[in-house]
Amino acid sequence: PPPPIFFFKEHRFPSQESYDCLISYRQGSDTVGTHSLANSLLAAGHTVFYDSLSLQSGQRLTDEFMQAMCRTLVVVPFVSRAALDRMLVPGNLHTQDNVLLEWSLALYLKEIGVVHRINPVFVGDVT
């Protein structure tokens, strides 16, 4: 089922900044690669939403991140063992996992045509 948020294809928050790319990652585990990608994309002239560069102090990460995703053409989720393992930790089943929420929203927005592409980057070991 879709996330508990209602979106419309034609509603892209025209008064707010839009982004070519939004980078989604697990804090503390995928930071080096995501920071490098964000800087490379910015240097190439793209508009990028990357939390450590895009959020103002005091802004709520989840709210701002989700709103930015609604104004993004391409979502780049960094998929790593650390990102996935945390989703499977016993006891975390009843807490909100922001990365899972981000990925779910990205899939929903792609389905309704707001996000044009999702380009995952797989990092780390495969075992």
Q: Would you kindly provide a brief summary of this structure?
A:
The chain is of the alpha/beta class and 127 residues long. It contains five helices and five strands. α3 packs parallel to α5 (98-111).
SSE arrangement:
Layout: E1 19-24, H1 31-43, E2 48-49, H2 51-54, H3 61-69, E3 72-79, H4 81-87, H5 98-111, E4 117-118, E5 121-122
Parallel strand pairs: 1-2, 1-3, 3-4, 3-5
Helix pairs in contact: 3-5
- Give the class from helix and strand content and strand pairing: alpha/beta
Estimate the strand proportion.
Answer: 15-25%
Order of SSEs, N→C?
EHEHHEHHEE
Helix content bin: 25-40%
Tally the helices.
5
Radius of gyration, taken over Cα atoms and rounded to an integer in Å: 14 Å
What gross morphology would you assign? globular
Distance between the termini: 30 Å
Give an overview of the whole structure.
The protein is of the alpha/beta class. The chain is built from five helices and five strands; from the N terminus they run βαβααβααββ. α3 packs parallel to α5. The N terminus is likely disordered.
Which structural traits does this protein have?
127 residues, alpha/beta, five-stranded parallel sheet, globular
